[in-house]
Every structure is written in structure tokens, then in C-alpha cells.
Amino acid sequence: MSKDFRVVASAFENLKLRKLSKQLGDEGVLSLISLWAYAAAHKPSGILGACAAEDIEMMAAWEVASREGEFAKVVADLRLIDHDDAAGYAIHDWPEHNSFLVTGSGKVRSSVVDVRVDTGIMSHRKIVALRRSLGAAGVVSLMRLWAFAAVYRTDGVLDGMSYRDVSAESRWPSDDAAYVSLLVDLHLLESEGLEDPNEPERDPTLGGPFLIHDWSDWNPWRTGSKERSKRGKIASHKRWSEAHTPSTPIADTRNQPPHFPPPPPPAPPPAPSPLVPKPATSPSAAEGATSIAERRRENYDGGTVLSGTLGRKFS
Hints:
Oligomer: single chain
Number of helices: 13
């Protein structure tokens, strides 16, 4: 027989539970939690089997005699329990939220924020005394405070929270100080020996600081969640750094004068081409024409004009 079950921290904000609270009040919400506790202890698969409405209300400890049969009808209409002609009744989504009970593996979904609740919570003397003093609303408000701590105060220490703050997170509607003082008197909250000597003295009318009693014993997974998250971030950063660090270390050039690479060496001069003697050739036609023009210029300068093969001397 299991000793505990899980309640998702966001369960009290679920639309179905809000409708249940609106139709049946806090008595209906507390009876649903009692039904979950009974299933964890006696029906770990979540299958209640073929049973009458009276049996379901007995499992849920629904004790409103004037409204007999109403709880079973409302939770069935809201699909908080499912019905199958062959298997009978089963708690809705039980394997999803309490898979460790169904499989017997002891493992839960690490991505879901939940609160671990004892299966015998409704018969615990502190809870009985709280319910006797404040009714079902007092117990439901306490569980709302547990759900708040699972998300925002994972170590169970309600540091920086006054009477009013604790009452507000518990959704307690009336006297803040009286409600929180009762939780302290029942040792559901602790307030002694939690003062930090380095902090200024608090106004005693505000109350606090507070610690949820035995939080680390019942919810060790949530208690160490911040430290696990910190270690995970460090390990992730280390893996990323190793994957993106080059094999050759890069010198630290910070605060160093700029360094420019030396210019490349000058290119060597081209090698001289080998001398090749030119072959002897006869004068070309162009060279012959040049010689004729030169002779004509010499004769003109000397006073002789050549025309064809004849020449005439002039003075």
C-alpha cells in the first residue's frame, strides 16, 4: 500500500475544480482529495471498479447527508471520474499524474510541479483539528499554501511573507492573523528560530518568517530543485564551452599593442632571355626606298635635280 500520492500544484486553478468548488463548495474539493487518497492507498491503478454512487461517496468521505448522491453525480458530470460499462469507474487521468503508483516504479514526471500528500492526511490529528476549527475551507486553504510553496518557495521557507501574505496565498477569505496563528499553534507552520540576525527587526504585528512543517521530509524533490537547476546550468555551460573551444588555445591579446604581420619579401627579378643571333637577310624593299630618298635629298642640296636618268646643272 502506497503512503503518498501527488497533487499537481496547478490543480486548484483547474477549471474542473473551480466548477466543483462552485457547485459543492470546499466540502466537494476536500472530498475529491479524499477520493484520491483512498485510491492511492487501495486502488493504485486508479480504477475504482463497478460500484454505486453510494460507494464512491463513502470512498470520498462525502458527509453531507442532505445532499446524498450529489457528489458522485457532479464529479462524473465534470469528468473528474470516468465511467466505462466494462471496467466501471476510474479516476480521470490518474496514470498521468500518479504513474509511479500504476507502474510501481517509484518514478514520477520530473517536468511536473506537484505536492506529495500522505494517503492518511484526512485522519491526521492536525488536519482533524484544523477542520474542526475552520471547516473544509481551512484544509483546502492549507493545501493551496502547499501548492504555492511547491512553485515559489521550494525550500518551504516563506521568507518575507507576513500574516497577510500567507493568508492571501492560501486564499483564506477572512482574519489573516487568526488563520495563520492557528496554523502555527497546530505546528502546521513554524515560526520560532527562523529570524535572520543580519536583517532588521521585523514588525511583530506582521508575523513571520514562517516555515512549512516537515516540508523537506515530504517534498525532498521540490526542496532541492533550485540546487539541481543551478548544477544543471553549470553542467550545460561546461558542455557548450567544451564543444565550442578550439583544440589550439588562443592567446589572450587583450591590453596588448596591435601587431601587424611583416610585409612579404620582394619578388625576384625576371631571368634574362637568351640571346639568339638573327639570320642574315637581303635588304628589303622598304630599305631600298629609303636609300633612294636619301640620294635625292643629297643631290637637291648640292644643286642637281634628277629626273629619270637625265640631270641639269643650274647656278
